[in-house]
Write a structure and sequence with these properties.
single chain, alpha+beta, five-stranded antiparallel beta sheet, about 10% strand, elongated
């Protein structure tokens, strides 16, 4: 039985060595190189043309779906160029479908606030006038150090210098400088900001 298993393993090893010796690793022939060059010369301009026709909003990356579309476009382009199993027409159709879905979704979100909240979610208030919002930070899995990093990136040395720190719907941290003006129009869409001074004091703490 042991001898039989050894013979079987030896056969598998020989087949693997034969496959590796016949499969191209560094150079697979001029036909493959020519195909790659021709497909790249056609697919890349085709994708750029579709993106330009759809408008700048396509690559704006304002929410999670925008990021998904951007990554998917790049992945599809790479597959079309390098894979002989994907025809140019399939790649162009994939570009068109991704861009069309992104266009339709952005059109709907721009016309329906409820649909926009469903797709994009809402910004999250993480810090208010020098204090951190513990419960909100735990819900979105943001640490003190990540907030400090956002402060440094914005040119602030202390949390007391800012009005709020907000986790935006695209995953970025926004830091708003404290102002003397009572008008904070940009913060109206942040849930909890308007009622923070009155009702959220127990949920706030100074940074460690």
């Amino acid at each position: 039985m042991i001898r039989g298993l050894a013979a079987t393993n030896w056969d598998h090893l020989q087949k693997w060595e034969l496959r590796m010796s016949t499969s191209p690793i560094l150079f697979s022939g001029w036909d493959a190189l020519i195909r790659t060059a021709v497909i790249a010369a056609c697919a890349y301009p085709g994708m750029l043309l579709m993106v330009r026709l759809s408008g700048n909003r396509t690559l704006a990356q304002l929410n999670a779906f925008d990021l998904i579309v951007t990554v998917a476009l790049g992945s599809t382009l790479a597959s079309v160029i390098t894979s002989k199993d994907v025809a140019l027409a399939q790649g162009l159709l994939s570009f068109a479908m991704l861009i069309a879905m992104q266009f339709a979704l952005s059109w709907l979100t721009s016309r329906s606030a409820r649909f926009e909240r469903t797709i994009n979610g809402e910004p999250v208030l993480l810090a208010f006038r020098g204090d951190l919002m513990d419960k909100a930070m735990q819900q979105v899995r943001i640490t003190d150090e990540e907030i400090r990093a956002a402060l440094r990136a914005g040119g602030f040395a202390s949390l007391s210098e800012v009005e709020v720190v907000v986790l935006e719907t695209n995953g970025q941290l926004s830091v708003v400088e404290r102002q003397n003006s009572s008008s904070q129009n940009a913060l109206r869409s942040v849930p909890g900001y308007s009622k923070t001074p009155a009702t959220a004091a127990s949920k706030r703490r100074s940074p460690r």
